[in-house]
Recover the amino acids of this structure.
């Protein structure tokens, strides 16, 4: 009987927790949202969460939004970070979204493509603006209320192609091929518009080679194929566990920007150059990455700000994961949307739709101190934030910014 | 089903009845009335959780018929849900078919997929069948991604909000009623299926397929029937899931979901309709508790470590049930009922 009573008490407690007691907090605004702290994006999400918490602590302490900004958050407003782990499962993200909304959250966040696909229409219906760690063509089917801070992969590819073509000295057409991850992310660049764009700006398109997302053996066959076809530029979407072994094999085969067989390998943001350079050193020289973030030794004021914010929050521990920078941007965007909305709507009347229309849509040229490629601008139908794409190359083991090209909006899906 | 003191069955009709007493009828009616009254006092969040639980219950019923009753272990259930989900999505989005017509088509398509991938069960069983069903999952997902022009491939497919006649199912309350209605019917159907000739054949195959075959049970026919029925349930669940999201994507049917559905069956009790419901409810609720506990615990440990609780707790619960209560929550429930039936002369009910 004791066990039955215990079970009954536990069930009751569970019901109380699930139904929840509506809480009212005086002038507290929530930022953050759903995180994918379990699963493939766990490391990324942990860094994002740490950054949002650090940024919120900075704003709460100083009421300033960034060292270079004069605007302030109203003194009577306190920010609080609210998060839940969705394990990158859409089925978990839905109730989490409802819970956070019920708690009074008026901004949201997207932690990955599966969550984006599950939530985007619901967010739009609720008029909820959200920052998004995921970026993909699915956001370009209007209308949407999810805002990214780096470009979609096809635009990254276009940026590298533009930059490479700008430096092309020979009379013949440069040959381009895809060397990309063998999954949905890697294949997302295989759209007719991408090939048309490459051919339009003067490339000869050779073909496609796939590499497993995380290769279990060197991609010798694929690289040899590229060499035999005389490819000058290989483009792809890879994460670091894919790009690093690929480049090692390239070097072994004498291929690369600074190798006997000249071929440049360029990837989109998931193959972050900072992470790559740290792991590969000079072996990775020539590797190009578009749409990523600056390195931690970059003199940009945004980088200095992030380092200071970390010292303020946790002086003994430095989070150097590159997605910390993404999280910091998300914190900046959410807080800016709230601040702008508060200019037009009193705190008591703040709703998700009010923040979307008076906050997110009014973000114009938000200066991020060089963390994002350009200052961020959003509006109805304008969800990509940046106007240009930063291009980095690994040179002598260091990340060097080699250019910045305008967004081409290659994907035209409607 | 054990009867209360003083209740006797006098004919086969009474013996076969699902509810044996007025109290049981009353309890079922009160439970259903309570369930359907939930939108009156539950928040959007609780309704969302309950809707997701309802969809899981339908799916786990299918797996229970296939694995719990017929003994054909499948770890490809999420793949079959994807077949149903995508069929419904394509019919609604590309052919403008109404939801009520697309739903049975989704069930049928998943059933046919089940028949195809169930064929190996005629030759292989146990570990090898598990491998075949895992392969089925990946083949299905691969096919969906390759058929880009029809399914949207990796980009997914936007699905219009479900409607039945003039009733829009876009609101959480309407969808909750739809899912709970179908889940109730699915539970009733599952309960009845196992009381039919086919249901008895399933159990015979599960307990000893050789003996069943010797007795004249056609393994060929009944194993495929079990696959068909189990996958029809998966198809309905997949269709409901896709229409709830209003978007079809292969990401919504991860392989691990198939594993957790099997886990729900273990926790609830294999070979029991009540167990399938209890298992789905228990693991889904635990999922929610862990989600809430994560940020609280993150004050003591790193957020990532706190968040990992979900995976750890799921695994732990399944191991604990396998060791200490292999017959699942259903058995516990029966023991609790036995305790009160015998009260005030209750004794510690053992096996």
């Amino acid at each position: 009987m004791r066990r039955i009573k215990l079970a009954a008490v536990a069930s009751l407690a569970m019901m109380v927790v699930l139904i929840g007691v509506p809480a009212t907090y005086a002038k507290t605004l929530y930022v953050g949202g759903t995180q994918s702290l379990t699963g493939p994006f766990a490391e990324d999400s942990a860094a994002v969460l740490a950054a949002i918490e650090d940024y919120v602590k900075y704003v709460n302490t100083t009421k300033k939004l960034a060292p270079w900004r004069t605007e302030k958050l109203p003194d009577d407003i306190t920010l609080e970070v609210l998060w839940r782990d969705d394990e990158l499962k859409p089925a978990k993200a839905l109730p989490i979204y409802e819970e956070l909304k019920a708690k009074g959250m008026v901004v949201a966040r997207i932690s990955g493509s599966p969550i984006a696909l599950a939530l985007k229409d619901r967010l739009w219906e609720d008029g909820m603006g959200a920052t998004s760690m995921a970026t993909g063509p699915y956001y370009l089917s209007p209308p949407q209320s999810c805002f990214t801070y780096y470009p979609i992969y096809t635009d990254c590819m276009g940026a590298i192609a533009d930059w490479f073509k700008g430096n092309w000295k020979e009379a013949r057409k440069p040959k381009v091929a895809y060397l990309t991850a063998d999954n949905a992310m890697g294949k997302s660049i295989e759209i007719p518009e991408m090939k048309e764009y490459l051919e339009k700006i003067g490339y000869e398109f050779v073909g496609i080679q796939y590499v497993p997302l995380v290769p279990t053996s060197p991609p010798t066959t694929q690289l040899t194929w590229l060499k035999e076809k005389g490819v000058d530029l290989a483009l792809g979407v890879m994460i670091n566990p894919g790009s690093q072994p690929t480049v090692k094999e390239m070097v072994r085969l004498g291929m690369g920007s600074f190798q006997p067989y000249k071929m440049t390998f360029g990837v989109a943001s998931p193959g972050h150059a900072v992470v790559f350079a740290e792991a590969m050193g000079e072996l990775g020289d020539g590797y190009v990455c578009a749409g990523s973030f600056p390195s931690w030794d970059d003199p940009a004021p945004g980088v200095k700000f992030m380092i200071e914010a970390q010292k303020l929050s946790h002086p003994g521990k430095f989070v150097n994961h590159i997605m910390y920078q993404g999280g910091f941007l998300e914190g900046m965007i959410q807080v800016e949307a709230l601040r702008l909305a508060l200019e037009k709507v009193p705190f008591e009347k703040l709703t998700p739709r009010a923040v979307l229309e008076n906050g997110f849509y009014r973000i114009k040229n938000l200066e991020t101190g060089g963390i994002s490629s350009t200052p961020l601008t959003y509006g109805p139908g304008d969800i990509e934030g940046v106007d240009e794409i930063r291009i980095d190359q690994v040179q002598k083991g260091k990340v060097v910014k080699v250019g910045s090209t305008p967004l081409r909006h290659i994907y035209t899906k409607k | 089903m054990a009867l209360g003191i003083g209740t006797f069955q006098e004919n086969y009709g009474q013996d076969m009845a699902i509810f044996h007493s007025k109290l049981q009828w009353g309890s079922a009616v009160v439970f259903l009335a309570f369930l359907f009254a939930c939108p009156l006092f539950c928040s959007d969040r609780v309704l969302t959780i309950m809707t997701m639980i309802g969809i899981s219950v339908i799916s786990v019923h299918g797996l229970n018929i296939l694995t719990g009753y017929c003994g054909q272990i499948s770890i490809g259930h999420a793949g079959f849900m994807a077949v149903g989900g995508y069929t419904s999505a394509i019919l609604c989005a590309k052919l403008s078919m109404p939801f009520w017509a697309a739903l049975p088509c989704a069930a049928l398509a998943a059933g046919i997929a089940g028949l195809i991938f169930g064929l190996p069960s005629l030759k292989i069983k146990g570990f090898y069948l598990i491998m075949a069903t895992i392969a089925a999952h990946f083949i299905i997902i691969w096919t969906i991604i390759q058929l880009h022009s029809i399914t949207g491939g990796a980009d997914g497919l936007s699905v219009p909000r479900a409607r039945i006649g003039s009733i829009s199912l876009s609101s959480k309350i309407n969808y909750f009623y739809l899912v709970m209605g179908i889940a109730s019917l699915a539970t009733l159907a599952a309960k009845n299926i196992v009381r039919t000739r086919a249901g008895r054949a399933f159990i015979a195959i599960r307990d000893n397929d050789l003996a069943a075959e010797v007795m004249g049970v056609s393994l060929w026919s009944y194993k495929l029937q079990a696959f068909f029925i189990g996958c029809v349930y998966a198809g309905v669940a997949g269709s409901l899931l896709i229409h709830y999201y209003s978007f079809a994507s292969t990401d919504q049917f991860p392989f691990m979901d198939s594993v957790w559905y099997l886990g729900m069956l273990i926790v609830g009790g294999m070979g029991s309709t009540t167990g399938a419901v209890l298992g789905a409810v228990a693991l889904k609720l635990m999922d929610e508790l862990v989600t809430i506990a994560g940020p609280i615990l993150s004050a003591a440990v790193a957020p990532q470590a706190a968040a990992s609780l979900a995976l750890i707790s799921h695994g732990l619960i399944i191991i604990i049930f396998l060791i200490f209560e292999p017959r699942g929550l259903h058995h516990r429930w029966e023991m609790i009922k036995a305790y009160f039936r015998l009260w005030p002369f209750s004794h510690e009910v053992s096996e």
About this structure: Strands of chain B lie at 157-158, 163-164, 167-168, 247-248. Chain B has a mean pLDDT of 89.
